[in-house]
Amino acid sequence: METTERLPNDLRHLTGPFDVVGDVHGCRVELAHLLRELGYEVAEDGAAHPDGRTAVFVGDLVDRGPDTPGVLRLVMGMVRAGTALCVRGNHDDKLARALKGRDVTVVHGLEKSLAQLARESAEFRAEVLEFLDALVPHYVLDGGDLVVAHAGLPERYHGVESAKSRALAVWGQSTGALDARGFPVRHPWFEEYSGTATVLYGHTPVEEPAWVNGTLCLDTGCAFGGALTAVRWPERDLVSVPARRVWYPR
Questions:
Q1: Does residue 90 form part of some domain?
Q2: In what order do the strands lie in the sheet with 238-242?
Q3: What is the Cα–Cα distance from 22 to 82, expressed in whole angstroms?
């Protein structure tokens, strides 16, 4: 029997306009600053745009920065109110597993999130785990013209719900090599991309965002002292705010 049930990643009926925000990594003050620059009215536990725009977060809300609970409280409130969407990042995924008591290696800023959340109530930690567990790896938006995935996503996996699409969207494809800082070198999928949808993503910090074959990386290394960046869709206008300081040395 044919089913007409929409997959959880298929939100092509939502046409925006959107403000797609790069990796926040626990930088709550910078996030509030960026949202205000984008025209949002920001409170402790939420934000809304007077013109009805929707924020879309590319994942990696957590780790490295000084206020992961504050970021989560703000974004969770926005998602709950329908003023934001968020996809799952690899750091979000790992924090969820740590909160479940799974055996994970506590590195790359996870130690900061766990210490900060330990000062919060058990009820809040339970809400965080429920929120992180519900995040989908990627979204198809705006009639199929826009795809948001934390690590990017080749066209053949757009709208596909599978183990392979989840792994690529959340973690990307490693080449097996490490860079000078000890981080995995990712396969540059965007150099081969020729799809019709625009793909917005984060995951691998860049000095300046640049369009490549209809794709754009929005991770400008806020926690490393760079900037927090968003792009307005469909206008394609870039908006950035500088980090207040280096929160997590590379």
A1: yes
A2: 84-86, 54-57, 18-21, 227-233, 238-242
A3: 19
Q: Does residue 248 lie in a domain region? A: no
Q: How far is CA 117 from CA 66, 133, 135, 217, in A?
A: 11, 16, 19, 29
Dump the DSSP string for 160-171: --SHHHHHHHHH
| Segments forming the whole domain that contains residue 23 | 10-242
Number of domains in the chain: 1
Q: What is the CATH number of the domain that holds 135?
A: 3.60.21.10
Is position 5 within any domain?
no
The pTM for the full model equals 0.94
With contact defined as beta carbons under 8 Å apart, do 59 and 86 qualify? Answer: yes
Residue positions counted in the chain: 250
In a domain, 32, yes or no: yes
CA 11 to chain centre: 17
Segment 168-192, tens digit of pLDDT: 999 998 777 777 666 677 789 999 9
